[in-house]
Amino acid sequence: NSMLSWQRTAFHFQPEKNWMNDPNGPLFYKGWYHFFYQYNPNKAVWGDIVWGHAVSKDLIHWLHLPLAMVADQWYDINGVWTGSATILPDGKIVMLYTGSTNESVQVQNLAYPADHSDPLLLNWVKYSGNPVLVPPPGIGYKDFRDPTTAWFTSEGKWRITIGSKLNKTGISLVYDTKDFKTYELLNGVLHAVPGTGMWECVDFYPVSKTSDKGLDTSVNGPDVKHVVKASLDDDRNDYYAFGTYDEKTGKWVPDNEKIDVGIGIRYDYGKFYASKTFYDQNKGRRVLWGWIGESDSESADVQKGWASLQGIPRTVLFDQKTGSNLLQWPVEEIEKLRLSSKDFNKVEVKAGSVVPLQVGTATQLDIIAEFELDNKVLESVAESNEAFSCNTSGGAAKRGALGPFGLLVLADESLSEQTPVYFYVAKGPGGIVDTFFCADQTR
Ligand code: DQQ
Predict the structure, then answer these.
(1) Whose CA is nearest to atom 7 of ligand 1?
(2) Is 212 an active-site residue?
(3) What predicted TM-score, i.e. pTM, was given to this entire model?
């Protein structure tokens, strides 16, 4: 493992060196996918945050560009923090981001490309009237950050939401604007969930109930569900929920309050944080970016000279089959990286067994696996009241009737070191079958 930690990625996005965290302002413009990210140019630990910038034709192969924005104004001198892009109907781009001021107050700032004819969007201008938003009365000056992409309302205004908290209740404030310079705070919040703490990097977007096309952020209607996602500062995971959005009041109501934002489903049960989607008008899909932080120590990061990477961008869709979750799939462009493949068919995995797969030599693997449960076994299993959780149910080692099953990756010969990426199927009251997808890093 000490060898592995020195390797750089081949598939995943990372800067040439030093520290990276949240994805920022992803967008497609004049033939290029743009990716901005929270970056420390000086060291492989968080701090001195500016916006790194890279472009790609396929979301997989990246060209590193100069920093897009640095901390050079009183309103962002302590950090150019997370933000989102909005593409206006005339094709112009506005960027909203959080600045940490000279007094470490979190404010929202407006920036835009210096030259819209430049497909690489190399130069960025910060609006002279910044900051455009300061924490409203009652909100902590360090609890006001990460503006979303704006969506267009039927009133002809743009609307954004910004995560915050009130005591231990996570909330998301809503603002209307006509010009991205002056804003009006709506009464009430988009949503609030007690006990979830500070909501970072809130994301809000529509998904289609009936089609597998992605939707522009402003789309609404009877065929649409709205996703709210929050990154819980206390828990360091990204939680989402489906619900109904009422444009008139600016409020969103979860479909099921038991699986509300922050207490229900996560995008990912490995390391995945501060994620953000964007609508890719090039391919008519919604794409999810998420930051994968390190599990290793800070000193190990410093020693190797870099820290963290971005997950492969994923296409997200409402799962019409279950109606209860999103379907996530690595963007189709990933397939171009497959130089050779090996197929294994009809592998039978008996209870308690490990089946070795001879994959040959490779430094990178991209695995597609399909599992089929024995129907007879499925039927014979008794219903259980026991709640399963990737985190607390004993990982990949504790056996239940229908799981865990999956793949042991990064395993040594003796299996003393391994990372199970596994499924767990639980049959609950009423015969309802729930499938969990987990990773176990304990070994
Ligand atoms: N990272 C940014 C903040 C955000 C946090 C600072 C989430 O804007 O809340 O680097 O990881």
Answers:
(1) 274
(2) no
(3) 0.95
